[in-house]
Amino acid sequence: MPKRAGRVAGCLDDMIISLYAHGMSVRDILHHLKQVYGTDLSHEPPELIHGM
After folding, report:
1. How far is CA 38 from CA 8, 12, 28, in A?
2. Dihedral (CA of 8, 1, 38, 17) sign
């Protein structure tokens, strides 16, 4: 497990909800996460990703 991975994953949901609640769009949040953490996440809704 990469250093700090558990700490980041533990609060990531709260951070995303907070950013969204403050008016950021999903694409803006994804762009922010890519800049800060170097992540590439899908903008598709979870039900489409998981095939539900």
Report:
1. 12, 14, 14
2. negative
pTM: predicted TM-score of the whole model, two decimal places: 0.58
Residue 43 vs residues 1, 10, 50: alpha-carbon distances, Å: 25, 20, 13
- Nearest CA-CA partner of 33 in 16, 14, 20, 10: 16
Which pLDDT belongs to residue 23? Answer: 94
Residue type (1 letter), 3:
K
Tokens coding 16: 């995303």
Number of residues that make up the chain: 52
Q: Where are the domains of the chain?
A: 5-49
